[in-house]
Specification:
This protein is α/β, with parallel strands linked by helices and 403 residues long. The protein is built from 20 helices and 13 strands. The chain folds into three domains: 212 residues, HUPs (Rossmann fold, 3-Layer(aba) Sandwich); 93 residues, Tyrosyl-Transfer RNA Synthetase (Orthogonal Bundle), CATH 1.10.240; 64 residues, RNA-binding S4 domain (Structural Genomics Hypothetical 15.5 Kd Protein In mrcA-pckA Intergenic Region, Chain A, Roll). The strands form three sheets. A six-stranded mixed sheet has the order 1-6-5-2-3-4, with helices on both faces. Strands 9-13-12-10-11 form a five-stranded mixed sheet. The radius of gyration is 26 Å and the shape is elongated. The chain starts with a helix and ends with a strand. 33% of the residues are buried.
Length: 403
């Protein structure tokens, strides 16, 4: 399948500046995509355009990945003024994001750049004369985020954040001149900033550059930006979103959206996804599409070994797979996700220690009601609890007993 066909089928195309999208099939392009180090981790919101980048790389295009050390010091304008990060915070975040680039794009050819490297020595007056003179104020004022922030219900906007698109536009000009970059990939929320760069290249270099934006991913069941939950964003860093929680997030996506996410977030082939879509329609209760999605994305971010572990742990917790099949690594994962108590303890004491019950009498009633099982077997109050046992209470409460 040609790249243009692949991107359209997978849902990566929102808007572009090419006369014909098929132009990306006929030439080897050098392009860039980047993220600001506003945090020490990317989210699955960033992962979506990163997957588009992977398709470009796999079709022979050359990638420049940008870490926005300069733009990160300002902050991409949102609904309200961002709190500024310190230089040390930005530096630490940049290194974390570089490592995540290396993980997402492992095995591929790419170059990483930092826009702080070309902004740190720019003279302000020279920048205004050379760049500012070529950016119409009307186009900057027309940006949606500016209109929102300056509107009646807006909180206003600082000169720094107002200038963000000017800085990002200069990035494109710089990479065009120094790296022969002629295409920028982005999310649709960045479209205005990218167009600023294309306009600068046209005005300063009398040359043509292009942009291609993908739509923002929206959770169809909630109508909000995909990846946001009650507890916040879904992160790629396992210290912020554990591999188990990451896997569970994908496993629990709704039926109406899972095929769309398979197209965006995995490198599974068209035939594989069509087969999963067919299974989803005929046997939705099997959740084959969700299982494939959860495994593939977890494998990409956390590696195959960890993905296999969280898959097995999930099967033990919710699909009655034999607890004894769990390895030491699996148990380590499990111990971070459910209540964990130490040996030695009697069953009644364990239920109290884990705050399942307040008293031994309450614990006895729970056991007598057949609501408690140990490693898959029903128990009595006198059942011996061995180390590395899994106690299940009802359908969704668990206790791991470790030495």
């Amino acid at each position: 399948m040609k790249l243009s066909e692949e991107l359209e089928w997978r849902g990566f195309i929102s808007q572009h500046t090419f006369k014909n999208l098929s132009d990306i099939d006929n030439n080897s392009l050098k392009f860039y995509w980047g993220a600001d180090p506003s945090s020490d981790s990317l989210t699955i919101g960033n992962l979506a355009p990163a997957m588009m980048v992977r398709h470009f790389i796999e079709h022979g295009h050359k990638a420049v990945l940008l870490v926005g050390g300069a733009t990160g010091l300002i902050g991409d304008p949102k609904e309200q003024e961002r709190s500024q990060k310190t230089v040390d915070e930005i530096s630490s975040n940049k290194e974390a994001i570089r490592k995540q680039y290396d993980n997402i794009f492992r095995g591929a050819q790419y170059e990483i750049v930092d826009n702080y490297d070309w902004f740190k020595n720019i003279n302000y007056l020279d920048f205004l004369r050379d760049i500012g003179k070529n950016v119409p104020l009307s186009s900057m004022l027309a940006r949606e985020f500016v209109q929102t922030r300056l509107g009646i219900d807006g909180g206003g906007i600082s000169y720094a954040e107002f200038s963000y698109s000017l800085i990002q536009g200069y990035d494109f000009l710089h990479l065009f001149k120094e790296k022969d970059v002629t295409l920028q990939l982005c999310g649709s929320d960045q479209w205005g900033n990218v167009i600023a760069g294309i306009d600068l290249i046209r005005r300063k270099e009398s040359s043509e550059a292009n942009a291609l934006a993908m739509p923002l991913i929206i959770n169809k069941s909630t109508g909000i930006k995909f990846g946001k939950s009650e507890s916040g964003a879904v992160w790629l860093d396992p210290n912020k979103t554990s591999a188990f929680s990451f896997y569970q997030f994908w496993l629990n996506v709704d039926d109406s959206s899972v095929v769309d996410y398979l197209k965006i977030y995995t490198m599974l082939s068209k035939d594989e996804i069509i087969n999963l879509e067919s299974s989803q329609k005929t046997n939705p209760e099997k959740r084959d599409a969700q299982k494939a999605l959860a495994f593939e994305v977890t494998k990409l971010i956390h590696g195959e070994e960890r993905a296999q572990s969280v898959k097995k742990v999930t099967s033990v917790l919710f699909e009655n797979e034999d607890f004894s099949t769990l390895t030491s690594q699996d148990l380590d994962i499990l111990s971070k996700e459910i209540v964990c108590v130490s040996m030695p303890n009697e069953l009644l004491d364990i239920l109290i220690e884990a705050k399942v019950c307040k008293s031994k009498n309450e614990a006895k009633r729970l056991i007598e009601g057949n609501a408690v099982a140990v490693s898959g077997n029903k128990v009595s109050e006198n059942t011996t609890i061995n180390k590395n046992s899994l106690i299940k209470i009802g359908k969704n409460r668990f206790i791991l007993v470790r030495q």
